[in-house]
Design a protein that fits this description.
- It is a single chain.
- It contains 13 helices and ten strands.
- By secondary structure, it is of the alpha/beta class.
- It has a single domain, classed as Aldolase class I (TIM Barrel, Alpha-Beta Barrel).
- The strands form two sheets. It has a seven-stranded parallel β-sheet.
- Strand 6, helix 9 and strand 7 form a beta-alpha-beta unit.
- Helix 1 runs antiparallel to helix 10.
- The chain binds ligand V47 and iron/sulfur cluster (SF4).
- The site of iron/sulfur cluster has 12 residues, from loops.
Length: 356
């Protein structure tokens, strides 16, 4: 296939071709191809948003080996916010022009479906102007099946409470060989994909991720991307793909593994852009990559950096990410993007441009 044809939809990359490019194509050439495709989709624009996270708890029934965040109940460092504490947190932003609240946390078995439902409606009542992007498929699968609801019924109830989008986490690597090793007890690849497929049918937009750089093979990475691309062909419901670099601090899996190099990260960003030809947005998630690597990722096909965050997430700082208190001002988001030679554009959760 000629380099001009890649990403045009007609001659999309096969898994075999992508693996071949992974191993043999010089990084600069991959970057140039990925950037060209990004330009066709969004020109010189790169997106950021004004958002906060709510991480209601880090108590979790699961024991993913890559997680630096999970605690058992009563363990040092465990937290579990009451609804009043969540109200207080949301109320701090009433006067601020944030457009998104991202809610992701551990899966505390003491909290039932109704808690999750109330959390969404509470945040939405306090911050009526924001879009709530809530929970990963892992949390959703657990609370919905435990409440003996069908996936559809569960998602519909949460949608009625105000859930407009679903976070992309929990996908990790779909191959069962890897899942059985790093996160054996949480929802399967099939269940993750079913939650997202059903959400798309209900008009709930979702994100997607891949946790790379641990025990998975390159073949397993492209198998993962291929399953996402197939579902996107069917539904068109994913708004972004986020490659998540495995950070090794303070977790069991990280004891025996070194982090991927920045060159490998750029190869991953570029090939995600080229392989996922039916995805509009590839997000270089700055709290996980760090600011410098995020700037660089914009030269390899990424078109989104995520948001201002305001020091409301702990998942990545606990795993060794550079920013221990992740927070960017709007000016800093814009500078990060202009440093890479792009035009900063504020977006909402659905990639509508915000002009003010
Ligand atoms: O599923 C956990 C990842 C995810 C580590 O939708 C780690 O915009 C790297 O849902 N090193 C949860 N990654 C976070 C999530 C998310 C993140 C960013 C953007 C969006 C979005 C959603 O965090 C987990 C897992 O894949 N994670 N531990 C770690 N040590
Ligand atoms: Fe629990 Fe999520 Fe950590 Fe896994 S990654 S142990 S599901 S908090």
């Amino acid at each position: 296939m000629s380099k001009q044809e890649i990403g045009q939809g007609v001659n999309r990359l096969s898994v075999k071709e992508a693996i071949e490019m992974w191993h043999n194509m010089p990084l600069a050439e991959l970057g140039a191809m990925a950037q060209k495709l990004k330009h066709q989709k969004s020109g010189t624009e790169v997106y950021y948003n004004r958002n906060i996270h709510i991480e209601p708890t880090n108590i979790c029934v699961f024991r993913c080996k890559f997680c630096s965040y999970r605690r058992a109940e009563g363990q040092d460092g465990a937290w579990s916010y009451s609804m009043d504490e969540i109200k207080e947190l949301a109320a701090r932003y009433v006067q601020q022009p944030i457009t998104e609240v991202h809610i992701v946390g551990g899966v505390d078995p003491k909290r039932g479906f109704e808690f999750y439902e109330e959390l969404i409606s509470t945040a939405q009542n306090i911050l009526p102007q924001v879009a709530i992007k809530a929970y990963t498929a892992v949390e959703l699968h657990y609370i919905i099946t435990r409440a003996e609801l069908s996936i559809r019924e569960g998602l519909q109830r949460l949608q009625r409470a105000g859930m407009r989008a679903i976070a992309g986490g929990g996908a990790e690597i779909f191959a069962s060989r890897v899942r059985n090793e790093i996160c054996p007890d949480k929802c399967s690849a099939k269940e993750w994909l079913e939650i997202h497929q059903t959400a798309h049918q209900l008009g709930i937009t979702t994100n997607s991720t891949m946790l790379y750089g641990h025990i998975e093979t390159i073949e397993e990475r492209f198998d993962h991307l291929n399953r996402l691309r197939e579902l996107q062909d069917q539904t068109g419901g994913f708004s972004a793909f986020i490659p998540l670099k495995f950070r090794t601090a303070n977790n069991e899996l990280g004891e025996s593994i070194s982090e991927t190099s920045i060159a490998e990260d750029m190869r991953m960003v570029a090939l995600s852009r080229l392989f996922l030809d039916n995805f509009e947005h590839i997000k270089a998630y700055w709290p996980m990559f760090g600011r410098a690597t995020t700037e660089l990722a914009l030269a390899f096909g990424a078109d989104d950096i995520d948001g201002t965050i305001d020091d409301t997430t702990k998942i990545y700082s606990l795993a060794g990410a550079e920013d221990t208190k992740p927070k960017l001002s709007v000016e800093q988001c814009r500078t990060l993007i202009t440093n890479a030679g792009y035009t900063p554009v504020e977006r909402d959760t659905f990639y509508n441009k915000i002009t003010q």
